[in-house]
Write a structure and sequence with these properties.
Layout: E1 4-5, E2 11-12, H1 20-26, H2 29-38, E3 44-49, E4 54-57, H3 59-65, H4 86-100, E5 102-110, E6 117-128, E7 134-143, H5 145-166, E8 171-176, E9 181-184, H6 203-210, H7 215-229, E10 233-234, E11 251-259, E12 265-273, H8 274-367, H9 371-399, E13 406-408, H10 410-424, E14 430-435, E15 442-444, H11 446-463, E16 469-477, E17 493-500, H12 507-512, H13 530-540, E18 544-549, E19 555-562, H14 571-583, E20 590-594, H15 598-610, E21 614-618, H16 621-630, E22 635-639, H17 647-657, E23 663-667, E24 679-682, H18 687-717, H19 721-734, E25 756-762, E26 769-775, H20 777-782, H21 805-813, E27 817-824, E28 829-841, E29 847-860
Helix pairs in contact: 6-7, 8-9, 8-15, 10-11, 11-13, 14-18
Length: 863
């Protein structure tokens, strides 16, 4: 650092930590006294040379800035000023001190150690020599950080205090110690609305501008007295006429002395307008009335809203229940789908195995005369048939397929499975069978009925743990009976009761007992499907199921099945009667048997051979085609599901090649649309079933030629294009069926659709019920009074010429009915009547529709 000359030839050296006293001695006398004083003052004192370099900083300054004594060299005092103010030193402070001798102002320093910002009041003086030249600068800085903070705090308190008054909605104002109006609240603004200026004005002048004498002077005296003594003043209601307004106003007011944040006194006046209070009272009364109305309306709305919320809650609860039901149904569907996939995967092979077992027991039964062996074979055959029925039932349950309903004699059906029921009883369970005489028949699937009874019996035996009594009772239940179920309202029913004296069930268990996969048995001892399958069978049969159970009092299952209606003799039954005599007398036909299961194929071949058939075996479809190329066969029996080519494709190729060979399909799949109209036996089957099916198709083949000749002769008798086109259509859709399907009928196939008549037949009613669903326009126009369902006149004036005979004959025989007549009316005209009735069916067996063509023409008679 360069030396600084003091103007007297003396040199001021920088002060070092170890040379303080020596340095002070070197400083000239005037400056030395200054430095001595600076050592003990609490303000920052620093000396700079003319270039602004720091040559001395007293202890108070070093503590303030946070540096040691040795750290001040060769620094400038400017270095400890906050960065954004350093330019002021060179641009303002130094030039002002040079020019005016001194600069005073506020500035901020930064503590080197803590980084704290320090507010200081700074005074910088210029030192000069005898010639007036500036030799340096002396800076005195006082720490005012705390003072500024306190000042700021006090200012904030004053502002807050004044803001509280100013924002007050009531009449409040503040007069300070100088008797100056300082703050007026929002509620008091209207009182001084006509006084300008207002804030900062002498309060005595304001009162005289508002109130007349002597009231103004009295009020001024009250304010001054309260300010001086601190005694509050409460004024009575004032109703003086104001100076600045014409209307008379009334006020209540009170004044109190308060201590202001700046430690001075003031007077606060609280007042309110009595006139305004009256207005407020009136408004308040109105508002209270409105509030009461609003409260009443709100209560009404709350009640309405509560009702709406209750309704919404009920709907939500219903929706939750619905969704839970849907989720449960979805879960159930997934379970059934898994069951269906599992069952479908094993059904084909399992049916083949059971078919071989059934065929084996049948062959043993046919080839042995020992009664004991025949009894064992019969029981084994029934057990295998039960296994086959169980597979079909599982498939039907998983896929929700329709049952194969038949007329059932319940007494005989229960008698057939009584041995199986007894054999399945555990321990010493006693079984009682009760069947009333004169039981009505039912229309149901016999296999599923027997399976349902076995399920109920086995469950009862398990529940009784091998000790107890099981009763199965069957009786008629007329539609008017007291215990008749609502589901069968108006229908006679048959009631099957399965009752045990076991431990019974709780209400929770009873609610879920028919739920699929729910079981109360130990793991591995129940599938939870038995009772679910029972309920499914009852529902598909159009019946009803009732379950009664109490803990300790046993369980009773009641199955109600609708009474079967005697639908008369169908075409199928007539055909079976016609062929029954031929079944045992025909033999030596050649049958081609196609199945990829070697054991089942061998067993079926043995069974057919015992019935007198010459059997040729092919283990796949291509081998069967090779056989057909080299030799002729009388019938083809083929499995449907085969690996290389399905039986359906095999038969299609055989029929496409030309030979008219009767075919029987073997399958384990029910309701296969591709087999509609074909002869099908369901796997597994007994040899007798297949033998009967073969005899049916062979006899039908032999009769087909004579049937075609009869229809050809009928076609020659027809007189009109209308009847001929209808017969051609019937023969085309009939194909190999005994009775063609009604769904295949097309009215447009007739050349004159306006002559067509369609009747729906109900063979279950006596007399047979005919309902005409379509009557052509020509026939309808011929009868002016309309056509009754029981009357079909052949002419406009004739009586019941149609009668029932032709329709009954067509329905019962399943054959066409034809009539032709000419009638001389005696009035110069003659009518020609021609009618052709053709049978149709919904299932290819029983006639339930008749389609007729009725041609009536009138012509003049020549004389």
């Amino acid at each position: 650092m360069e030396d600084v000359n003091d103007g007297h030839g003396s040199t001021v050296e920088p002060l070092a930590k170890a040379r303080r006293a020596e340095s002070i001695d070197v400083v000239p006398r005037g400056n030395a006294a200054l430095l001595q004083m600076a050592e003990y003052t609490g303000d920052l004192i620093g000396l700079c040379d003319a270039g602004g370099r720091l040559v001395y900083l007293n202890p108070a300054g070093r503590r303030l800035i946070g540096i040691e004594e040795a750290d001040i060299f060769p620094m400038r005092l400017t270095d400890y000023v906050v960065p954004d103010q350093r330019h002021l030193v060179d641009e303002v402070v130094v030039p002002t001190a040079r020019r005016d001798g001194v600069w005073r102002g506020d500035m901020q320093l930064a503590n080197v150690r803590t980084g704290a910002i320090i507010d200081v009041q700074r005074s910088t003086f210029a030192t000069r020599d005898e010639r007036g030249a500036v030799t340096g600068f002396v800076s005195v800085m006082r720490d005012v950080t705390q003072a500024k903070a306190e000042e700021h705090r006090l200012r904030r308190q004053v502002e807050t205090f004044e803001a509280l008054i100013a924002n007050n909605p009531f009449g409040v104002y503040l007069v300070d110690a100088d008797f100056t109006l300082r703050v007026v609240s929002r509620g008091a603004q209207m009182v001084f609305a006509n006084v300008r200026p207002l804030i900062g004005r002498d309060f005595a002048d304001i009162l005289r501008a508002v109130w007349p004498e002597p009231f103004a002077s009295e009020a001024i005296g009250h304010f001054r007295r309260t300010l001086d003594t601190g005694i509050a003043y409460q004024a009575g209601p004032t109703s003086e006429q104001r100076v600045d307004v014409e209307a008379r106003e009334a006020y209540d007011w009170r004044i109190e002395r308060v201590s202001l944040p700046d430690e001075r006194y003031g007077v606060v006046c609280y007042f309110y307008d009595l006139t305004e209070r009256e207005d407020w009272t009136h408004v308040l009364t109105e508002r209270e009335a409105e509030l009461r109305d609003l409260t009443t309306d709100l209560e009404r709305r709350v009640r309405a809203r509560t009702a709406a919320l209750n309704l919404a809650n009920e709907r939500l609860a219903t929706e939750i229940e619905r969704r839970e039901a849907v989720q449960a149904a979805q879960l159930q569907s997934q379970k059934l789908e898994a069951l269906g996939q599992l069952t479908s995967g094993v059904a084909h092979d399992f049916n083949n195995i059971l078919g071989a077992v059934i065929g084996g027991f049948t062959i043993i039964q046919n080839r042995n005369d020992d009664p004991r062996i025949q009894q064992i074979a019969t029981m084994g055959q029934r057990a295998a048939e039960r296994g086959a029925a169980l597979v079909r039932q599982l498939l039907a349950f998983a896929r929700q397929e329709d049952v194969v309903a038949q007329h059932i004699n319940l007494a005989g059906a229960i008698g057939e499975i009584s041995d199986l029921i007894k054999h399945g009883m555990r321990g010493t369970v006693a079984l009682t069978l009760e069947c009333d005489t004169g039981l009505w028949p039912v229309h149901a699937d016999p296999t599923q009925l027997q399976s349902a009874l076995l399920n109920l019996a086995n469950n009862a035996s398990d529940a009784m743990n091998g000790v107890g009594h099981l009763r199965i009772a069957v009786s008629n239940c007329a539609a008017a009976a007291a215990d008749h179920p609502l589901e069968l309202s108006g229908q006679d029913a048959i009631r099957i009761v399965v009752a045990d004296d076991g431990p019974g069930m709780s209400s929770d268990t009873l609610q879920r007992i028919t739920e699929p996969f729910f079981t109360t048995k130990e793991r591995g001892k129940g599938t939870g499907l038995g009772l679910a399958m029972v309920q499914r069978f009852v529902e598909q049969s159009g019946g009803a199921l009732r379950i009664e159970s109490r803990l300790g009092q046993g369980t009773t299952f009641s199955i109600y099945l609708p009474r079967a209606v005697d639908r008369g003799v169908s075409a199928a039954s007539l055909a079976s009667e016609d062929t029954s005599s031929d079944v045992a007398g025909r033999a030596f036909e050649t049958v081609l048997l196609v199945d990829d299961d070697d054991e089942l194929c061998a067993m079926i071949a043995e069974g057919l051979a015992d019935e007198g058939f010459d059997v040729v075996v092919a283990h796949d479809a291509r081998a069967a085609l090779d056989v057909l190329r080299t030799r002729g066969v009388d019938a083809l029996v083929t499995d449907v599901a085969m690996p290389d080519m399905t039986g359906i494709d095999l038969v299609a190729r055989v029929r496409a090649s030309g030979p008219d060979i009767p075919c029987v399909f073997m399958t384990g799949i029910t309701n296969d649309a591709a087999l509609t109209g074909e002869t099908v036996v369901q796997k597994p089957f007994s040899p007798a079933v297949l033998h009967y099916a073969l005899r049916r198709i062979l006899i039908a083949r032999d009769r087909r030629a004579s049937d075609a000749e009869r229809l050809d002769r009928l076609a020659l008798r027809l007189k009109s294009d209308c009847t001929r086109s209808l017969l051609d259509h019937w023969r085309a859709v009939r194909g190999a069926l005994t009775v063609p399907l009604f769904d295949a009928f097309a009215i447009t196939a007739c050349s004159e659709p306006h002559r067509i008549v369609v009747a729906r037949i109900d063979l279950g009613k006596v007399p047979i019920d005919f309902t005409f669903t379509l009557v052509g326009n020509t026939l309808r126009d011929a009868v002016p009074d309309g056509i009754d369902v029981a009357d079909m006149p052949v002419s406009g004036n004739d009586a019941l010429a149609a009668r029932e005979a032709a329709y009954r004959r067509c329905a019962l025989t399943g054959k066409p009915s034809y009539e032709h007549a000419r009638i001389d009316l005696g009035d110069g005209y003659r009518e020609t009547f021609e009618r052709l009735l053709l049978p149709f069916s919904s299932d290819g067996v029983a006639v339930d529709h008749i389609v007729g063509a009725v041609v009536i023409e009138r012509e003049a008679v020549e004389e």
